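CORE FACILITY INTAKE
Project code: CF-77B
Contact: R.S. (postdoc)
Sample description: multi-component assembly, two entities in total
Requested service: structural model of the whole complex
Turnaround: standard
Below are the sequence entries exactly as provided by the requester. Do not edit them.
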Amino acid sequence: MTASGPLAGITVIDLSRILAGPYCTFLMAELGARVIKVEPPGKGDDAREYGPFVNGRSTYFASVNRGKESIALDLKSAGDQCIFEALLARADVIVENFRPGTMEKLGYGWERLHPRYPRLIYAATSGFGHTGPFSHYPAYDMVVQGLGGIMSITGHPGQPPVRIGMSIGDIGAGLYTTVAVNAALVHREKTGEATKVDVAMFDCQLALLENAIMRYTVTGTVPGPLGARHPSITPFEAFATADGAMIIAAGNDALYLKLCDALGRPDLAAAPGYKTNDLRSRNQATLKAEIESELKKQPTSAWIPLIERAGIPCGPINTVAQALAHPQVEARNMLVTTEDPVAGTLRLAGNPLKLSAFPDPPTRPPAPALDADRARLLKELGIEE
Amino acid sequence: MTASGPLAGITVIDLSRILAGPYCTFLMAELGARVIKVEPPGKGDDAREYGPFVNGRSTYFASVNRGKESIALDLKSAGDQCIFEALLARADVIVENFRPGTMEKLGYGWERLHPRYPRLIYAATSGFGHTGPFSHYPAYDMVVQGLGGIMSITGHPGQPPVRIGMSIGDIGAGLYTTVAVNAALVHREKTGEATKVDVAMFDCQLALLENAIMRYTVTGTVPGPLGARHPSITPFEAFATADGAMIIAAGNDALYLKLCDALGRPDLAAAPGYKTNDLRSRNQATLKAEIESELKKQPTSAWIPLIERAGIPCGPINTVAQALAHPQVEARNMLVTTEDPVAGTLRLAGNPLKLSAFPDPPTRPPAPALDADRARLLKELGIEE
């Protein structure tokens, strides 16, 4: 597994499970790092039991663990501790997403590891972080989405709450952790000093709400859900068409006039109630109804080229299938192939980190079976069992 | 502005505007990099005109540009080009989020810059990337949210589309760009080689949908919106209470039994139709109604401690105000203060990248006024105007 990428030569020991930590090490593997998953014997990473399955193989696991190696170690057994420590001695980064305190109980907390492995960067991703009164609370993606405020600004006013359709709690934390680990690697390359990275899913939710937090602290008004519209620009939202919905983003007066023209509605352009963005925003509901009365006469696919040609930013609301059929997906290699020895050919999300100095091949190595790399790793470490 | 952080000593020339690029350089500034915004004379970054305003100052701009420096340069004027090139000669990274081709027209595309500044990392964040047939298309956060599929899996089935309440199109791209830039810095520290980073907002949307893409390519079933529930675990969703809603995540049979107990409903525990997770998932709607009939008897604040004490993961659906009042926010310094010379004291989202080797002070330097650092920068560069 010789990887090519900006992190080539970097070895990551990955104790993390399910999603937030594994997403971080997934990105690092895509960037060329060598990622060695250290999993509990027997079941391994919990995600190995998450569907959908193909020939008994978790494709959930296969997607986010592709290109990693696996060794099963019982960190409470002396023999396996010896192997684990030999791995740490050769590693650059350790990543874990246990509940705070777990690593300390195992004898592998930052305070113990840092003196022994002074160049080892330690990255922890947890629900609430390694400090503070709620540090020890468990967290799940959905619980954190609720706690962090993102659900309160997503959805339609007066309607039941909406979860973000992807695991923004986990994936968000995974992304921020990767930003921090890579920065810690820059620092270590320059100074030799390693640091502990402590990223909390809850903190990351707040960080993602940057703009909403600023609006609240500045205005004192608690932001609410806005459906699919812009808070202060009109028309700038999702509109119903004959067969679904589309987005039209007419960000200024000139674009609004062009839109009225494209819709064949000069009366809307002339109407005094829609003359300025401020007036349009005040009369948003009636204007939306007027626009939709036209849009509902044709399907989305007929409207897109027409409105696009008029120079107005717009687009469909694609399903996942439609999104993957977009010509940029193939052109940008955003759907890659993995040959899994058990599940067969899998098509998975590609790597959005395009770097001119490195290849972005259309295939990726598969995720490892539990403990698949044990023999080779032991040989490499010079350990006989 | 001496910064402390893992990227201390790194200088970033930031041509980016509004959000995706500025969010990347915001994170780099938080990590200790020196970020010099190069803005067009007159108006500067478009975001300077985005509200809410305090004393005429854009707090939208202030939030995401804190701690940066500013110089206004007309990249089409020879004199300013001279200054710009002197800046590039001392920089480690340039970040831009123009439409592809803009930098080439200015004579500052990667192909021209790389031979002249071989250690300069070039990061571009654009709507569709620098390659492919749709490369030159403009993109807006909302248009990309529609195109990339995330809106199709967010919201309630049969209801109008829902935009993610924060700018996941821009912020997502900003995060991935930062991951890539930091990795490129690691590579350059090791080898001296600089690389071009080409991140597309659209690609990032697909990357964020990793799990949904895998589910679609594996099963052939197009994922749809699920409201606020887990696709395959029940009860694991948002439930109405007397005064709002809360999340309960009872991920297995044991937790389900504990929940029935906490709700005072042993009949639900015994009911054959709710015996296994599979049965509960099939009868999700009726079970939800049963659970809500109990939850609606008390407010969320009464239920949380009760259900929490039973050991069941749960939580409120916080507003932004409630999220900021969580005790972890103060403990983790997730709301920081900026003293803006014009707008006064601003409270902004903190930095979730907690690193043991570096301080995380409760205050941050303000965002710069347009061209505020011109005189000092020229002096530093030894240029007289």
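Facility notes:
- Residues 106 and 223 of chain A are 43 Å apart (CA to CA).
- Chain A touches chain B through 145 residues (CB under 8 Å).
Invoice: internal transfer
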